[in-house]
Structures are given as structure tokens and as C-alpha cells.
Amino acid sequence: MGDGPRFAVLGPVRGWRGDAELDLGAPQQRAMLAFLLLQEGRAAAAQTIVEALWGDRPPERARGAIRTYASRLRSAVEPDRARPAVLVTAGDGYRLVLPGEGLDATLFRTRLAAAERARASGELDAARRLVADALALWTGDPLDDLPGPFARAQRARLAEWRLVASQTRFELDLALGLHEEAVAELTVLAAEHPLREAFQRLLMLALHRSGRRAEAIEVFERSRSLLDAELGLDPDPDLVELRRLIAAGPTVFSAVAQLPSDLIDFTGRQERARELARLLSDGPTVAAVCGPVGVGTSALALHVAHLVRDVYPDGQFYADLRRSGPDAILLDFLRTLGVRAENVTDREERAALLRSALRGRRMLLVLDNAPDAASLRPLLPDGGECSVLVTCRARPEGIAHVIELDEFSEDEALAFFGRVAGHDRVAREPDAVAEAVALCGRLPLALRILAARLASRPGWTAGSLVRRLADERRRLAELKVGTLGVEAAFAREYARLDAGQARAFRLLAQRGRPSFSLDMAAELLKRPREEVEGTLAALVGFGLLTSPSPGRFRYPDLLHLYARHLP
Q1: Does one domain contain both 396 and 286?
Q2: What is Dmax (Cα atoms) for the chain?
Q3: Directed axis angle between helix 410-421 and helix 430-439, to 10°?
Q4: Is 231 inside a domain boundary?
Q5: How many separate domains does the chain show?
Q6: In this structure, are residues 396 and 373 in contact, taking their beta carbons and an 8 Å threshold?
Q7: pLDDT < 50 positions in the chain
């Protein structure tokens, strides 16, 4: 971030330039700084700052004090006071201009958002590391020792962020089997927040899975007594059910909970989500969500899986077939169900064991990123009460219930962008946001990345995004945040093509228009029609083309751009 200052509010308010700590002045002056920092680039009028610092009883010379604080803060934070670039005047008030990494609270949220994406993709180890990195930014009580009504209100809000992140961290610990390691920290956290039932539940699970059933039940009894004494309430029904399952013993306590978390900003696809949820709620079935790279097949499937969790009381399995093959997944599912199959090496035998272990259970299996029907076959249950939800690139053979996704509609794209970037950012520049959305081809992956970049950079505008996206040759490079990138997602699928498929993908894009017919493709590639038909079907299967009708094919906008610029 060059020579710019950086600040911390997740503890005492502090600031640095390079390795040198800045003198931020007296508590009231630091309270004004904290208020401006937490506006995240938005301007604040003088009267708003006065109310934040003194409430409805400000001193007579409050506005003069604000100007004095601003002058002193500029002495501390500006490299050149004659040309303020950090604390700038806005009307009769001020705003702070910082890069996203210039404030620990912004960096905290960025890391948590990355953790949620990793968790949704099944990368639990990576998600846990990101959450731990986010929590490591905390150095004490937020806004410690600052006066004023704003600081009091924000202290509670920021502390809640920390608790939610801690809960996520321990959920990931338990999902990764780190039960015994989690017990000590959860015991402290549950004691510090005895009325927060989520922590009591996690501690009960960690104790139970560590073989300490009696202690797990004791946690429940203490929580029930305290809730009754303090609030006159009964425990949450989920906590009561957990206590029953633990008390019944390991043979009854067999629910599986492998689903990555649902996206907190899931938007759009509501009709499709309801359709899929109804289907999975009506009885055992196999359904699929398919579509090209970046349209959000996994996001929709996981959202729906969470909607119908209660329909499958014996639990939910999750596997990403892009990262693990059927043999490893079969072994993992069997091990989770208590079936030792390490010595069984034949795939069909393992598949038979899984079908047997699933009989009599009502479970949902989410099989993400299935490359083909052959990889799915051994993982499918044999009738019974289980359902399967598959995501894949092309419409799979042998599955009757298929939902095909394309890019967002314009309304869905704008709503989604606003949910991630902040609706106020959209309201400020509706035309620029609409243009940015169009330049992204309304592709959900691209929109998430672009909106996340805008959210993490308060000094940017939607207009600045449009300017960055205007150059076609740089557009894909701009659609990247952290380890998530549109071009990288496209490149992963392109790398799987054989030489003939790769040649066709490149050449067909050079004709300029994204849509074409089978006959046009055969003429351009100078290959037999039947051979070209097989090649195009393969490209659809890799999610690099769509086929809106028989004999017709189309590049999604950003894939067309990617293909045109391939060497």
C-alpha cells in the first residue's frame, strides 16, 4: 500500500505509516478519527460528526472542536498537509480516503468473505486459515476507551463481528474433525457468553465427539438453568434435540453435517431455488443443476440444500468431484457412517457398502462439479429415502430433473451487485453500475468479484470500475480478487481440453459473433459435421459453450472474450 497510513479499530484505535506509529491525539480526537474510519470512505457532515461524538448535548463550540481535531489529525496522517489526500474536506465535513487494506476492519471483512467462498467450495482447511487470519487482526476490545455515543454503539457491533467469526472458526474445526483441540477454547467462550446458545451447542458437540458425553449433557443442563433463571426461556429446540441424541448414545447420534455454509448474500434465482426445494421436499429424488463456468451452479445447489436440511434429519453429505475422485469419496462417506472399508479396494464393492449403509436413512447427498455420469454412478444410493443433488457443466444423462442456469437477468445482476457491494453504492451511480454489470456479461462469478473489489475500496466509484473494464484486453485481469478470478476459472476448464477441442474453442471465437450453428462451425473448422458435433458437445460439457437449441451454440460474453485473446 505504499507510503499511505493504515489504521486499527479492532482494539485500541491506532495508526501507522510504515513501521512508525502515528500520534493520534486525545481520546475525543481519536473518537472522531474512528467515526470517519468506519464510514469506509463515505463523507460525513459536520453536524453528523458532532452527534457521533457528543450525542444531543454537544458543547457550544463543538464545530470549532471538530475543525481543530481535523487540523491535528492532518498533521499526523497527511504526508503533505498542503495537499490533503487522506483526510479530505467534503462540504462542511470530512471523509477519509484509504485503500481497502488501510483499515483492519475492512481487511477483517475481506478475509471472512474469502473464507465463506472457500467454505462454499468445500475448501475447509483454507476457510479455517482465512477465518483464523481475520481473528488475528483483533488486539483487544474494539474502539477501546473512546468516548461518545457512536463509539459505544460501534463497540457492540464490532464485538458481534468477532463472535460470529469465532463461531464460524469452531464450526470449521468440528467439520475438520478437530473436536478435542476445540474443547478448551470453546469452554472459555461458552463461559464468557453463557446465553449464546450457538457456543453451548458447539461445546456440546466437541465434548461428545471427544468421548465426553456426560460433560456434554452437563453443558446443556447449565445452559437450560441459566436461560430459565435469567430470561424465563426454554432452550432452543435444536439444542434440546442435540441433548436427546447425545443422551441416546452413539448408535442414535449419527446425523452427518458436511454442507459448506450457505452464502450470506445469495441473491437471484429465487424461482429456481423454490422449484428445486419443492422437488427435494416431495420425496427421494435425483436432481441436477447445470450451466457454464461461473454461472453459480454450486451457489444455487448449496443454498437449496440448506433450505431443505430439515427434510433430511439423518444429515447431508457433500463432495466436490473436481477435487476428489469417486474412490476417495466413497471411502470418506463410508468412514463417516462408521463403516471401515480401507481394505476394500474394488469400487463396486465400496459402492455396494455405501448403498447398504444408506438404507433406512433419510439423507441428502450434494455432489458438486460432477465431470460426467460415470463418476456419479457409484455414489448414487439404491432407492430408499435418500436424495441426490448434482452440479455439473452440461445436462447429465439419466437424470430427469435438471435445472439449467445461464447468466443473470439484468434485474438479478443489479440486485446481486448491490447485495455484495452495498445498495448505497448502486444508488449513487445507477448508470455506471448498469454499465459495469453489462461489461461483466451478467456472469455471477464476475459480478461477485467486481462488487467485492468495490466494497473493499471505499475510494473507488462504479465509474472508475467502468473505466478499468473498458479495455477488452485488460478486462479479465481486472475481474480478480484474492485467489478468485474469472480468467483462472476459465483457464482450469480450457486446460482440460484435448488439442482438437482447444483449437475449435479458439478458432470459432475469431469469427466475431458469439453465436453460431453447427453447419457454420463445420465449415470454419473444415472438419466432418459429425466430428464437429462431438467436439462442440464436449465444449458444452466443459462449460465453455452453451447450446440454447439443437444445432445452435453460444459463447457466454466473457468466455467469448477469453477465447478471442488466446494465443
Answers
A1: yes
A2: 87
A3: 110
A4: yes
A5: 5
A6: yes
A7: 1-2, 251-254
